[in-house]
Amino acid sequence: MASHGLAIMLVSLALLVSLALQHSWGNPFWFFFSVAVILSTWFGRAGAGWLAVVGSTLAVMYYFTPPIHSLAVNPGDLPFFLTFVACEVGVTHLISWRRKSEDALRHARDELEIRVAERTSALKNANDAMVLQMAEQKRTEETLQATRTELARVARITTIGELTASIAHEVNQPLAAVVANADACVAWLSREQPDLVEARAAAERATQGATRASEVIARIRSLISKATPEKSRVQINQVVEQTAALAAGQASKNNVAIEFQLSPDVPNVLGDSIQLQQVVLNLIVNGIEAMNSVADRPRKLVIRTQPQSGGQIRVSVQDSGVGVTADVMGRLFEPFFTTRAKGMGMGLPISRSIIEAHGGKLWAESNGSGGAIFSFTLPSRDEPAA
Amino acid sequence: MKEVDPVVFVIDDDRMIREGLQSLIRSVGLRVETFASAQGFLAAKRPDAPACLVLDVRMPGLSGLDLQVKLGEAGAQIPIIFITGHGDIPMSVRAMKEGAHEFLTKPVRGQDLLDAIQKAIASDRELRKGRLELTEVRTRFDSLTPREKEVLDLVVAGLLNKQIADRLGMSELTVKTHRAHVMEKTQAESLAHLVRMSEKLKNSPRK
User: Fold this and answer.
1) Are B61 and B36 spatial neighbours (Cβ–Cβ below 8 Å)?
2) What's the rounded Cα separation, in Å, for the pair B107 and B105?
3) Which residue of B lies nearest to A188 if distances are taken between CA atoms?
4) pLDDT above 70 covers what percent of chain B?
5) Residues from A in contact with B at Cβ < 8 Å
6) Which residues are CB-contacts of B175 (< 8 A; sequence separation ≥ 6)?
7) Of A21, B14, B53, B89, whose Cβ has the fewest other Cβ atoms within 10 Å?
8) Rounded to a whole number, what is the distance in Å from the CA of A166 to chain B's nearest CA?
9) What does the pLDDT look like over A115-153, one tens digit per residue?
10) Which of A208, A225, A242 is the last residue of a domain?
């Protein structure tokens, strides 16, 4: 409505100025109406423009075209008057069209700005969320890392603790025997009638206990000192035969027959023969003990050596014992895992680490006809032995 | 009462320890029986004599603590001296709760073990005496007739002869006769003695 007021005001102003100027100079100054129409259209849009056109036309008809003070127009002045009206209409039309397109442009620009602002804020939100998420993830990762470190520490301490406890038990047991027998010896000697036979027997048992304790310590020491292998060229068949000879006594005591299937074609390997002997002995003794409770079939231990593809050799020890259940199979090589009452649970893990230090593999599998097969491979470093 | 020789049972899976302990205990003149496993001990026939058990905690198969629980379930009250190589606190607490007599750590000093054995045997002797007396008293009380038992219950409850006669619908003279029989059969020296014996029987239900 303000724009219509503007149009009326501008037309009135143009009328006053035109009347004043005509009064002074006698010539009509119609062009002020054009200015009023232009300004109205420009500032007040199309509605105001058309109002200004109508107002101007009426004012010109009434005040400036003869007959004066009447809305009629003399036929002689009609072309001139119509030209004026046409010009007014044309100008209004053009300006309002121009104005409209400009508005549309501005509107489009504003809308674009709003949309850009919206997009920007959405993007910012997404960005903030991502930063938060990344911080969260970083924290989680740090916690995870800390937990992992702690776990590793605990595992290490536990391993050392268990190893210590195991060694302590192994040593303490014979020491307890020594103390009990020494005390008994003293007691027999302190009797009113000293019993020398009993005292001597007790003293001998004390000595046996002490020897056993020192053997345990020697065993542990040899485990530690053998940590770095001394490598030389080793004929594996020889190692197997020598080791089996060591276990022959135990085998015959347990009614176990050892059968050899040694391939003459196995190449030499580079390794520490003492350590490899230790591994083979461990597998043989395990096999013999696995057959302790077997009564319904022959107790047979088969030791095989075979050349493998890729220059590898393979040694396997097959027993006809109780076999290995699936869940025991999964834990066989875990330190301190044992199915034997007196076992330390260190034999297989140490054997595996020895074979791996030689670049080979040690594994267990079930023997189809009952029992288990323990095998290891070693890379050969030589041409087949002549 | 004629005293039977006490027996010490030694259960340890380690032969050398077993033999050492056996020799030590024999040296002070005690009878010893050794077992390599808890199962072996359970399977063996135990003499009827004051006894104690010297038991290794850590053994393959049935552990020392398992054996203690088994004996407890079977109602075999025999004092147990535990020997352990690694006497951790929860384990000793558990053993003591189950009534272990003593808990010694390896290596055991000979004198400590012998002292513990003497104490355990003495306590078993007392227990056995108590059990024996109880059986005797029970036999005596079992010899009462139903009528006498009724009279006994009311006497012990503190009723006078007259009241008992009213309650049971008999003459006071009959009550007196029953009462005299009760005192005689149970070998009670006084009313107080009779009450004590019947209390003891009530508190230890027969197995």
Assistant:
1) no
2) 6
3) B27
4) 95
5) 165, 168-169, 172-181, 183-188, 191, 195, 198, 201-202, 205-206, 208-209, 212, 341-342
6) B151, B161, B164, B165, B168
7) B89
8) 11
9) 999 999 999 999 999 999 999 999 988 888 777 766 666
10) A225
Residues facing B33 on adjacent strands: B9
Residue A180: which of B13, B21, B58 has the nearest Cβ? B21
Token duo for residue A119: 């997009």
**Amino acid in the structure at residue A173:** Q
pLDDT the model gives residue A386 = 37
- Predicted ipTM > 0.85: no
Q: Closest partner residue to A205 among B16, B26, B28, by Cβ?
A: B16
Which residues from chain B sit within 8 angstroms of residue A174, using beta carbons? Answer: 16
What tens digit of pLDDT does each residue of B34-66 get? 999 988 998 888 888 899 999 988 777 788 888
Say whether pLDDT at A114 is over 90: yes
- Segments in chain A forming alpha helices (H): 2-25, 31-59, 78-189, 196-225, 236-253, 273-290, 326-331, 347-357
Q: Measure the CA–CA gap between B176 and A208, rounded to whole angstroms.
A: 76
Integer angstrom CA distances of residue A145 from A137, A141, A154: 12, 6, 14
The answer for A255, left when phi > 0, alpha when psi is -120 to 50, beta otherwise, is: left
Q: Is any Cβ of chain A less than 8 angstroms from the Cβ of B88?
A: no
Q: How many CB atoms lie within 10 A of CB A49?
A: 28
The pair of structure tokens assigned to B66 is 């398992």
What whole-number distance in Å separates Cα of residue A296 and Cα of residue A287? Answer: 17
Q: Which of B10, B15, B17 to mutate to test the interface with A (most CBs of A within 10 A)?
A: B17
Hey, which CATH number is domain B7-131, 3.30.70.100, 3.40.50.150, 3.40.630.30, 3.40.50.2300? 3.40.50.2300
d(CA B35, CA B64): 12
A261 within a domain of the structure (yes/no): yes
Q: Which residue has the higher pLDDT, B176 or B87?
A: B176
The answer for B 53-72 residues in CB contact with A (under 8 A) is 58, 60-61
Domain identity same for A243 and A347: yes
Could you tell me if B23 lies within 8 Å of chain A, comparing CB atoms?
Answer: yes
Does A349 share its domain with A380? yes
Give the burial class of A351: count Cβ atoms within 10 A of its Cβ; 0-12 exposed, 13-18 middle, 19 or more buried: buried
Q: How far apart are CA A61 and CA A77, in angstroms?
A: 10
Residues with Cβ within 8 Å of A381's Cβ and at least 6 positions away in sequence, in order, are A233, A268, A269, A270
pLDDT at B87 over 80: no
Q: Which chain B residue has the Cα nearest residue A199?
A: B23
- Domain B143-203 sits in CATH at 1.10.10.10
